[in-house]
Amino acid sequence: MDVRQLLMPVFSGVTLDGPSRMLRVDSKPIKVETSPGHVEIAFLHVIESEGSSHTDLRVAAIYDRSPIHTFMFDSEGAMLTANQAALLAHQRSALGLTASHGSAITLRSLFDCGSYDGGQQEAQAAYDEAVDCHRHIHPHISKKDGRTKWAMIEMWPMQDPVTAGSAVLAKKYNISQQKELELQLASQQVALQRQNQELEQDSVIMQEEQRKLQREANSLAQRLEAVLHDKFTPRSGFDADTPIDKTLQFLQGVIAGDMPPVQTALDLYHILSESDTNLRQPVGLESQLLQHSLGSEVGQSMLQLLQGNSSAPRGGEGLIISGPVCMLSDKRACLESAAAQSSGLARHGSMTKQQQQQLFIPTNVTPDVERRLYDAESNWQFDIFGYAEACHGKCLSMLTFHLMKQTGIIKEHGLDESKLCHFLQKIESGYDSANPYHNSVHVASVVQMSHMLLCHGGVLKSGAMNRQQQVATYWSAMVHDHEHGGLNNDFLIKSRHPLAITYNDQSPLENHHLASAVRLLLQPEYQYIPASHCSAEATAQFRIVAVNQVLGTDMKKHFDITSRFQMVMKCADIGHLAAAARTHKRWAYQLEEEFFRQGDKERSCGLSVSPLMDRSTQGGMTRSQMGFFSIVGIPLFKAMAEVFEDAQPMLDGVMANYHHWEAATPEADLPA
Ligand SMILES: [Zn+2]
Prior knowledge:
Layout: H1 3-7, E1 21-35, E2 38-50, H2 54-65, E3 69-73, E4 79-82, H3 84-95, H4 107-111, H5 120-125, E5 134-141, E6 148-159, E7 166-174, H6 176-232, H7 243-255, H8 262-273, H9 285-293, H10 296-306, H11 317-320, H12 332-346, H13 353-357, H14 367-376, H15 384-390, H16 395-406, H17 409-412, H18 417-429, H19 440-455, H20 467-479, H21 489-494, H22 498-502, H23 508-521, H24 536-551, H25 564-573, H26 581-604, H27 625-643, H28 648-664
Antiparallel strand pairs: 1-2, 3-4, 3-7, 5-6, 6-7
Helix pairs in contact: 7-8, 9-10, 16-18, 16-19, 19-20, 19-25, 20-24, 23-24, 24-25, 25-27, 27-28
Bound molecules: zinc ion.
């Protein structure tokens, strides 16, 4: 063999003539010293052919220059040949400059890179001619940088053109970049899937959260409804509807197109056709109170309190009280009591000049009282007891004057301040501080509550009352219990008290409060309303308001209340139901004490003691609080708040106290 020919680079463009069939092409790496001390690797291509041709050379050139690592292996897996790129890549590290040439490349060693320990099976399978192309992808760790590389090996079964034996053409592609992208994509997909799952979970959680919130909202709404129902539906089961209410409801149903049951119509017919039906009193009040809901003594007391026709002495009492004017002469204590009351009524004569000069000057008050007076202007739960203690016995006159002045009605109506002060002082002295309940503090509280309803409860704002009626309302409030003796109408009537005689048992107390105060107002020294405001018409208006309001405070007229004037005074009179719990309780126990004192008096007179007024039995009038709230207080304040929604704080206060009593009332006294 010609060595020059052997050394000649295959791709140098040298033409060779030779056999047309290539028998063998071989490449071997050799070291060539290209310059002194500088050695490079070169490849020696050995071509054995049966007469070479240009075509063979070109084929050889393509094969050799292809960047794809290309190998040919014989049937044993030994390398027959490989192109430059393949040899360079696969032999460089093994070769080194000192290593011997031709370190073995085999079909298996293609797979035998780093992590993958020889492709025994793949190499075996490569000879299966039934398969066109065997493809294997495998990773390996690069020896160079330790990174994972990916390669694809494609193998075609073929015939060795030289030996005509079976052989394999193998190509190896670096697919690391592609694989990396694939892996990135896959990991992104995984991440995306995870995100989707999380979002789905989030959405599930949010839906669950939403459902939970919805459930909570529903339950809150139900609770609110229950509270409102509880709030506006007293537990007594007491039916407060009057025949008028029932008729109106029936007619409303008919107008709305409902077909009311015949029984309802029949019931209504019976109610209305009863000769003694009081159209303005709850149907069957007495039986309801005594049988339906309240304990018997509590029911008796409520009945006595509310029912207009209970004035006549009942049972054996008629025998005891037989005297035409007063009690039997041998009931000494009783006589004394009546005498005391009579003298009490008479003891307020005209004031002397000196007394008049001692009148308070309302503007000259201590800072504490002043602060409390300003508080009274707009506080629904004004601390009346704290205020009364701070101003030493002038609580009514000072408060009334202050409120009237602050609202501007004194100026607006040209009221005579000095005479107003005299009148107030005079009225205040007509309240007995010895009464636990019906004293000037109670009356001051009624004035304050009336003021609240007018100025903050929406009564004036709505036009339900005008400024003239406002003047009359302050007057009614300040006189509404004038010269109250601490004994109720029932006592006055059954003891044949002069007031009961004078007023024929018709609201003797209220008639007296009103008449005695009017008599005072008619005296020139107290006439604080200027003559210019006393036309016949104005006076008539004033009297209508005052008479309605003061007479309306009789509890027996409770179900007869028809006008808004009356409602205002009525609410104010029992306004302590809406006071702060401490204040309200104090009033309740003071009223109970006043009732006990009446009970003491009844016993000492030989009269039967009124229900809940006997201090020797367990509990007094406070036992009837639930009933009083249910039957009187709540319906009244509810009606007020319905007409004047600004008065809602008052109803709220009432309900708070109602629940307080509900919690504190023993089972036995709870309405059914
Ligand atoms: Zn009162």
